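1st attempt posting a full record on here, be nice pls
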Amino acid sequence: MASVRTAQILSEVATSGTPPDQLCRRLVDVCAEAVPVTGVGMLLMSDAGPLGIVAATDGPAATMEELQFSLGEGPCVDASRRGRPVLQPDLAVTGSHRWPGFTAGALDAGIRAVFALPLRVGAIRLGVLDLYRDRPGVLAEQHLTEALHYADAATSLLLHLQAIDGQDGSGSGSVPVLEDRTEVHQATGVVSVQAGVTLPQALSLLRARAFSEGWSMLDLARSVLAKQVRFDDVT
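the predicted structure (as tokens):
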């Protein structure tokens, strides 16, 4: 059962006639105002890793979510797999050996602390709510408690939006990332055929190329589907 505070957050997010496809963005914006962090993002997750970016506040949060999605590594991946928060109050000290690619990109973007909160229902992975801060330090107990309430609200919101899609059958994408996921999965299949590798290996090739050449995963996937980028010569 949702807590009173979680219900209050959902009520605040849904005020002012916010359209369904903007509810997740509204939630991360409100969370960034309620908790002393630099930015907040939300990723949709599966057993295999990040599926795509649901929402992110303005500033470095979107860059950090794209980095985790492209690399397939980072606090969000660990939080989703373990089913418990991953709290990194000082990335410069503890992050490099765990997530070398992500940590380097985060520090370059001015991010010094990350707090990743899994969005799950039992054993079912839905996503991760990521909180980013431009200075090191732990979250005070009351702020972490508030962030966990926002994670509960985000879980309820994702379930609600996916239920809307399932009921109307329109494929309109009330969770916007679902469209991104489709194109990346289609491109993964193309790369698998071109490179003669398995689907997980093809996804790794996409992520490696996106990271090394400065693409977003979605832009690279679209270029693969448009036959502008090929992977025939990958060894």
